[in-house]
Amino acid sequence: MRSPDADSYLDGPLGWTHQSMQRLLREVHLADENEPVTKKQRAGRHRAVEFQHNAVTAMRSAGRRSMTGAVALDVHFTCGERNPPSIHHLAKHLLDVLGPAINPEDLGRQSVVYRDDRQVKLLHVTLDQAWNPNPDAAPKPAGTRVIARPIRDVAEDLRVADEIQSRLDRWPQEDDTGPFHIPAEDFDDDPVPWSPQDGRLPEETESLAQLARFDRHWRLMRAQEAHLAATDAYLLSYLCACPNDIAGTRQFPAGGLESHAQHAASLSEMYRPLLLTLPFGLPLPGFALASGEWKRYGQQARTALASFLDRWPLFRPLLIPVTVTLLVTPSIRGMDLDNIALTLLPIIHDVLRPHIDPFTVHQLGLTPPSTGTEHEEHMQALRRLRSLNEYSVTAYQVIELKRTSRTPPEGTITLLLGDGIRRQSAWETASDYLRHNLPALLESE
């Protein structure tokens, strides 16, 4: 929301453009071309030392030091192995590697990207399982990509994206395909019944039955896409309207007829309860405050997820990739974001069973061809499915929110399911949105 006493230059398209470029220069981009590994794998420590050395070299050449404040982290893994590690184990290891130096004397500094992984308040992780059994297909290179941003820059991107969206919203040519758009299409979950097949040849009956199955899967997939895209739009709108709800952001200074702090609090008071009670949001139990309570906590979380599927049969089965978002208000003891994912993602894998390929469920349900190229392609798809993590979350983000006077001692956790096809964090979506639309605003000035 625009500050009432802000300077006209800083609070306009030209100032936004210049400041956006400054924020872009403060980003830290790291890349590693090796196969991602976890701490327990044999090459884990050696790769960690190598990664830290290469990362520090790249940061020094860019004139960057370790971040001392709150951090937003985007991580993308590409695994070429036949049986890759789970996404949460890869993330846990990498967040440790990006922190304190393993050999400070050799590295010439005490830490890499940040001093402690508790500085990470926004975390987005994706995993591309790129193994391909077809020898004729070009293999996709394995590796790890990291983008680190100061939280203050992320909050400003969100704020400016909200301002741009409010201006563009009054334009007749508003783009309904933008990230803030909430799909209004009412997709029919139940396919139209097919006519009786009496008197048809067996081949015709089988073909029509396959077409009916495909139609049912297609309608269900489109309905899931629409509903999950709406959840993504609600989440992005909330973060853009209330960026100072994110942990690690600074409060607005008081002043004016209505202080910025009061204005931000009023927006949060309005939007935050709505987000936490979205139809496809699932409140999970708060954090266990004692180590002996974690087993019971896992059972409670599993029960809550199972009841979610009972209430929403639309997601049985999940035919599209999903991004799992965990909105976290920490307990009075606090907790690392990577440890939250380490605890909850295996339960989410087991209960929600999101699929890595939206069409494989349908394809493998068909009668396999007996011979020829189609038979071999069908068998390759089946082998690939069995060799990978058959049911897995391949993208997740954890968003830590500030505690309020209403937050219970154990904190809060809300799970949201979003569209996993785009595989982009909410804050990166906002950053892309503002940089894409700023030229149009400049031309209109």
How would you summarize this macromolecular structure in one to three sentences?
The protein has helices spanning 13-25, 44-61, 87-97, 104-107, 151-168, 202-241, 260-276, 294-311, 337-352, 360-364, 372-387, 426-444, and strands at residues 28-32, 71-79, 120-129, 143-150, 281-284, 322-329, 395-400, 412-419.
Task: Write up this protein.
This protein has 445 residues and is an alpha+beta fold. The protein has one domain (13-444). Helices cover 44% and strands 13% of the residues. It has an 8-stranded mixed beta sheet. Helix 5 (151-168) crosses helix 12 (426-444) and helix 6 packs across helix 12.
Indicate the structural class: alpha+beta
Shape: globular
In whole angstroms, the N-to-C terminal distance is 19 Å
- The beta-strand count equals 8
Mean pLDDT: 79
| Rg estimate, integer Å | 24 Å
Largest sheet: 8 strands, mixed
Strand content: 5-15%
Helix content: 40-55%
Output the helix-strand order: HEHEHHEEHHHEHEHHHEEH
Number of contiguous helices: 12
How are the secondary structure elements laid out?
Blueprint: H1 13-25, E1 28-32, H2 44-61, E2 71-79, H3 87-97, H4 104-107, E3 120-129, E4 143-150, H5 151-168, H6 202-241, H7 260-276, E5 281-284, H8 294-311, E6 322-329, H9 337-352, H10 360-364, H11 372-387, E7 395-400, E8 412-419, H12 426-444
Parallel strand pairs: 2-3, 6-7
Antiparallel strand pairs: 1-4, 2-4, 3-7, 5-8, 6-8
Q: Tags for this entry?
A:
single chain; 445 residues; alpha+beta; eight-stranded mixed sheet; 12 helices; 13% strand; globular; disordered N terminus
